[in-house]
Amino acid sequence: xQWNTDxxxxxxxxxxxxxxxxxxxxxxxxxxxxxYPRTYIDYSNPTPLxxxxxxxxxxxxxxxxxxxxxxxxxxxxxxxxxxCADDTAGLTLTFFNNxxxxxxLEVGQEYLFYGKVGGGFAGREMIAPTFLPASSNAPLTPVxxxxxxxxxxxxxxxxxxxLALLQEIPDPLPEFxxxxxxxxxxxxxxxxxxxxxxxxxxEEGRRRFIFEELFVLQLGMLLMRGRDIAETGAPMQxxxxxxxxxxxxxxxxxAQQRSIDEIAEDMVGKSPMNRLLQGxxxxxxxxxxxxxxxxxAQNGYQSVMMAPTEILAGQHAETLEKTLxxxxxxxxxxxxxxxxxxxxxxxxxxxxxxxQLIVGTHAVLSEPVTFKNLGLAVTDxxxxxxxxQRGLLAAKAQRPHLLVMSATPIPRTLALLMFGDLxxxxxxxxxxxxxxxxxxxVTGKKRADMFGFLGKQIxxxxxxxxxxxxxxxxxxxxxxxxxxxxxxARPLLPxxxxxxxxxxxxxxxxxxxxxxxxxxxxxxxxxTTVIEVGVDVPNATVMVIxxxxxxxxxxxxxxxxxxxxxxAESYCVLVSDHATEAARERLRFLCRTNxxxxxxxxxxxxxxxGDFFGSRQHGLPTLQIADLATDTRVLKAxxxxxxxxxxxxxxxxxxxxxxxxxxxxxxxxxxxxxx
Length: 675
Ligand code: ADP
Ligand code: MG
Hints:
The protein is α/β, with parallel strands linked by helices. Helices cover 40% and strands 19% of the residues. The strands form four sheets. It has a seven-stranded parallel β-sheet, sandwiched between helices. Strands 17-22-21-18-20-19 form a six-stranded parallel β-sheet, with helices on both faces. The model is unreliable at 608-617 and 671-675 (pLDDT under 50). The structure holds adenosine-5'-diphosphate and magnesium ion. The site of adenosine-5'-diphosphate has 17 residues, from helix 10.
């Protein structure tokens, strides 16, 4: 039996089970061993039955007193009851459709059971507990991720068989690294993780796999970057920007001026720019990008600006056109909704160089678009870009300058990982006159009062966004938004003009709803979270977010950034009906601060839902075991070692590195979904 043997030849696995494993992406014996336990059941300290907590999983040790024969119940299922007891109390076990488990339990023997103790008048019970003979000396049982038809016992058995039957376990990590970092070999580590006797062993095994995973990740990132670096650049002259500055309706903030200077310096340098422009929502990133685009155009180069959604692309096109058209720069919008003849015209304008700025979604890069001479690529809120789309960009142009804009503060280590040796400009200063958004956290009981307040704002000529509750199972976001508008908003605000925005709308309809809202033909916009980050409607003064506890703070902060763009006092109301105390505390934190960096820091430290690492927005391969937020020390070591190794073997082509090259390929091929 080899590492790459098809899993169906493993003892205990046939075609059916192989198909079940297949659903989890496991096709070979080696991949099975790469299935890391989610957690471990610790049978080592069983609780006396009398003091076992209700509804919290725990381990108990009890003797089997009697077993019932299976009873057929509705749905053709069979039910088995097993009576047990320890010195303190009795316990009834219930198993559905599992005669095998029941058969293994012998009357008169003691077992360790793990599960939730529940029950009422009839006494304590446990439903479908996992168990071990009390004499067993493996008190730590791995708990694996499962799929339909596969239970933990089946997976554990297969894993144990694989460990016993594998003749050779190849180790991609070079021996000197194992020595240097005191890591176990792959074979040892697998044993420690899958078949541990102590939690200490689990840790030792995990430590090795975390290192391996991060090392492979770093090698992959470095190899991908190396390919870019082989290209040539778009050299530019330091032409004056005074005409650009003169045309602006306001003066730049100090931070904007500094960022523009840094960018201009990069663009006239020898190597291409690779810069992250980081600034909170509303800090004025678009204008900084406009300066860069202007400089590129002065030098005879085209620029492309990519936004995450069509609405945003449309808005950027509009704003940039306002700023740049008077300076003689031709702006073209290319999105999925530009069709037919119009599309042909735009494509021709891009190919001929007549279009000097092309604004679109990232799809611009995957389409058959030919640029005449692309010199600058700007991306807005497109973290995925850092990793996936460089290859596409390289195919369209000779290594253009790259400016990545983000309102989410990206932790330095992650930024390095994603973008390589990138430089960072920070907009740490808001344009003048901006007031902080007053933020309140309320429960659903206050909803009627809140709508009273919305009514007053609308009567005063202001506009309101409401992000409606997250969709329930089986519901579409159209239904969710429509139900909220009709059943909640309409009765409370009968006179308001209410609009709906949701994911099922066609791009053109979305744009129409946004137009109506912008032109104040609507007072209130009920939206699912498709509400576009970055839309600019200065007359909107209130942002209401329902089910607020279910978002990460950074996401809430982004939504809040939709208001507070005009001169009037603005408000954000976070509504949550079912929040735990911890969730409430998170929301209260947001009420106390308007600073996006503080918010992101809090999110990172507290790991709320949708945090930066949890969500896939960074576009890195999914890691099985390492955690970029907490394993930063290992990440740094892995990075240093990866750089060293590639100095010696730049393409990982030497024979001893073949397993590493294969591991890199696997991690990036399987997971780098381009979109
Ligand atoms: P973001 O960084 O969130 O992308 P925007 O670029 O959309 O911010 O800018 C937010 C708003 O601030 C826009 O309406 C823009 O016109 C305005 N703005 C940008 N810079 C300045 C400035 N220096 N002075 C006044 N208003 C500005
Ligand atoms: Mg923006």
